[in-house]
Each structure stands twice: as C-alpha cells, then as structure tokens.
C-alpha cells in the first residue's frame, strides 16, 4: 500500500506542544507540593490545576489526527505500535538503570511480587504489565495503546457518524464525568458491587470520550476565531475554578495537612475532583482546544511550534530524567517565589529536552528511540 503523506495542521501542532509543556510543568511541580510550612503550597496548587488538560489533550489529538483510519487496520496498528511501543520499551529499560535522586522516586501499583525481588529485575519484568517507580511517567501510554487497538473498530462509525450521533455519545460520556462526585456519597452505582465493577454506563466512560470530543470539535466547531477563543477561554476559566476548588476540598479531607504525613489513601483522595475523567477537567481541555483551534499565531512562532511538535514525543521520553536531576541541582540553589521558580525550571527542562531529542533525531534509526 502506498504511504500517505502527513498533512500538518498548525493548531494541532501547537496543541501538542502545549500538552507536552504542561506534562513537564506537572512533573516539575512534584518538587513544590510542600510549602515552607510543610503544608500544601498555594503556587503548586494553582499550577497543578493549570496542568490538568495535559493528558486529555494528548488523547484528544490522537483521535483528531488518526480517525477515521486512512489505511487498513494491520498497517495502522503496525505503524502506531512501531512508533510508540519500541521507543517506550527502549526508554523504560533505560529508566530502570538511570541513577535517580531517591527522594524523588515514587512507587508504582503494588502486586504479589512487590518488594520480593531484585529491584532491577522487578522493574524490567513489570514493563509489559504496568508502570513502576522507574517509568511512572509512562502510565497513560498503556491507556493510549488500548485506544489504538480500539480505533479500527470505531473507525467506520466515526467516518459515517452524524453530528447528532456524536453528540449522543458525548452527552452520555459527559454524564459519566459526574461520577467522581456521585461516588463520594454512592461508591457503587448502576449495578456495581464488590463483585461487579462493570456498571451500566461503563462502555460510555473512559478516555474514549476524549478521542471523540477531539473529532467532534475538529469537524463541527464552525465559530469565528473570536467566538471560538472567547468560548474556549470561558470553558477553561470555569473548569479551572471548579478544579482548583475541588483540589482544596480534597486536600481538606486528607488525614493530614502536612505533605510528608499524607498516606497512600490521601494521595488517591487528592485525585478525586481533579481527575482527568471529571467534567471540570473536560471543560478545561475543550476550552484549550477551542482557543488554539482558531488562534492564528505569527508565522515565525508557528514554525517554532511545528518544529517542537515534531519532536514532542522525544521531549516527553527524555524529560523525566532531566527534570529529576536539573531540579535537584537548581532548586536548592534558588530562592525565588515558588510559582516563578517552578515555571522557570519547567522551561529549562523543556528546552534542554528538545535539544537532546533533536540530537538523537540525527542518529540512524532514531525513530526507534524517539518515535
């Protein structure tokens, strides 16, 4: 089959860069969760809220760019998995052996073998099963790979679905985004129980909704540039306010207000109302998408965005080790406002990650390293 030339869409390139930077900012924020008093920092909470659209944007862009499929299922899956799986495997192995500042390494989900094996053997064994402390930043890649497997199935529907059809799905999906709130009072709903986790609307839930939301906005956002930016901005601001207040509401429910004393259950609670599958985060994500969709950047800036977008996956792959070590060196040496400091460190990590990815791109077979 003849290869299909990729068509670059400027606003999608811009959104990919935005999403990638927000991921970096989110990870750098781990250094700033604890304020000088030992409690959760105000600047950290403001910037953490800002970063919430990062993962949904990546998923939104996947649907917008890939569906409906332009090649047969086999070719599509081979291309996707070659471009994503091989680099992820390479970097997952590298991250097992990279020397990391121990105080910044978080654990992955526990299982029957946790703590019972050599840590290097354990982390290597877990790569095809789940993320661990060594590659925790790859957690959402597993979800994206699952969506790739499902794309050949939904591609015919996406191709033929009307605006009304897509709105029907997105409306029910939107209802499922309210479940995190409902579950605070009713943990099991719609047929769920301790022995059945598959409730009535499970097939309308999850990240698939972001795939279809991206396609819907790409097809049917016919607003003028001014209206699209205005509506997008309003959606983002409203979603931000709800998310920010939800974060502090959840912090208030913790076992301790001291970051160092928050237990594992507490960190789960923090994610309740700022989770990626909440209506408020979906509002922020749709808002960012609509804002940049019709925003025309100066040509020179757009060229920079196009270049950064081309290497965005490479930036994502390499940034984590750089953030750990650069942060460990810079942060103790600075004495700036934590919000300013966090943004500056994120910019430095992002820029250096770009140059590292750029250098790798000149190597033979670099697509197997940085996609």
Automatic annotation (TrEMBL):
The keyword tRNA processing does not apply. It comes from the Bacteria. It is a multi-pass membrane protein. InterPro entries: Acyl_transf_3_dom. The chain crosses the membrane at residues 12-30, 50-69, 81-98, 136-154, 166-186, 198-217, 229-247, 267-292, 313-331, 343-363. It is found in: Cell membrane. Belongs to the acyltransferase 3 family. This is Surface polysaccharide O-acyltransferase, integral membrane enzyme. It comes from Maribacter ulvicola.
């Amino acid at each position: 089959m003849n290869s299909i030339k990729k068509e670059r869409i400027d606003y999608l390139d811009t959104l990919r860069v935005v999403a990638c930077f927000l991921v970096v900012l989110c990870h750098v924020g781990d250094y700033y969760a604890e304020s000088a008093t030992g409690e959760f920092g105000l600047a950290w909470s403001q910037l953490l809220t800002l970063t919430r659209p990062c993962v949904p944007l990546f998923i939104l862009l996947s649907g917008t760019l890939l569906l409906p499929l332009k090649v047969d299922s086999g070719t599509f899956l081979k291309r996707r998995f070659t471009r994503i799986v091989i680099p992820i495997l390479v970097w997952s192995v590298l991250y097992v052996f990279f020397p990391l500042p121990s105080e910044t390494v978080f654990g992955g989900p526990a299982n029957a073998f946790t703590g019972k094996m050599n840590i290097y053997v354990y982390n290597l064994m877990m790569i095809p099963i789940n993320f661990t402390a060594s590659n925790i930043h790859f957690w959402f890649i597993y979800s994206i790979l699952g969506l790739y497997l499902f794309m050949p199935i939904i591609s015919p529907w996406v191709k033929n679905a009307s605006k009304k059809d897509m709105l029907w799905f997105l409306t029910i999906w939107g209802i499922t985004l309210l479940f995190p709130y409902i579950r605070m009072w009713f943990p099991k709903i719609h047929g769920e129980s301790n022995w059945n986790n598959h409730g009535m609307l499970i097939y309308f839930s999850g990240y698939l909704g972001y795939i279809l939301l991206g396609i819907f906005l790409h097809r049917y956002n016919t607003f003028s540039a001014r209206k699209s930016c205005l509506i997008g901005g309003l959606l983002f601001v409203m979603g931000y306010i709800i998310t920010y207040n939800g974060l502090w509401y959840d912090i208030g429910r913790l076992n301790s207000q001291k970051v160092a004393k928050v237990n594992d259950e507490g960190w789960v609670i923090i994610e309740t109302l700022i989770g990626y599958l909440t209506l408020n985060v979906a509002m922020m994500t749709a808002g960012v998408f609509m804002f940049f969709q019709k925003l025309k950047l100066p040509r020179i800036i757009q060229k920079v965005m196009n270049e950064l977008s081309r290497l965005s996956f490479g930036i994502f792959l390499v940034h984590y080790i750089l953030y750990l070590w650069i942060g460990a060196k810079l942060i103790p040496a600075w004495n700036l406002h934590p919000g300013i400091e966090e943004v500056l460190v994120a910019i430095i990590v992002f820029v250096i990650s770009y140059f590292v990815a750029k250098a790798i791109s000149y190597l033979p077979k670099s697509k197997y390293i940085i996609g």
